[in-house]
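REQUEST FORM: STRUCTURE PREDICTION
Request ID: SP-0412
Submitted by: Lab K.M.
Chain count: 1
Length (residues): 135
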Amino acid sequence: RHSHMIPAVIKKIDDAKNQSKDSVDIWGDGSAKREFMYAGDFADFVYYAIDNFEKMPQNINVGLGYDYTIDEYYEIIAKAVSYKGSFTHNLSMPTGMQQKLIDNTKLKDFGWQHQTSLEQGIQKTYDYFLSEIRK
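STATUS: Completed
RESULT:
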């Protein structure tokens, strides 16, 4: 009920698939961009940071350094869920801020890089959803 975008969209598309819905609504025009990182990669960063604490900058952004449109997230999630329906933009709902993206220059200089692709992270998250949430 109170989830953020990725888990909310996974549930929404999984429900549409299981209810044989032909279409799923996307709020706004789908053009807004967001940057999401797989939680396992963030955990890896924490361990890396602990092991390299002395050389870590005082302030550092942790993320991918690139983003995807809301439409792209829906398409990738639909593929992971094996949903074959279409998407409709609900333009009466807000699109949201156009971009939320970090500068990862210091992160690269620190020597850390994420390992999980968006597709892999979505698939792992969906598998978790199926095994632990929607038992």
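NOTES: The chain is about 45% helix and 10% strand.
Reviewed by: T.R.
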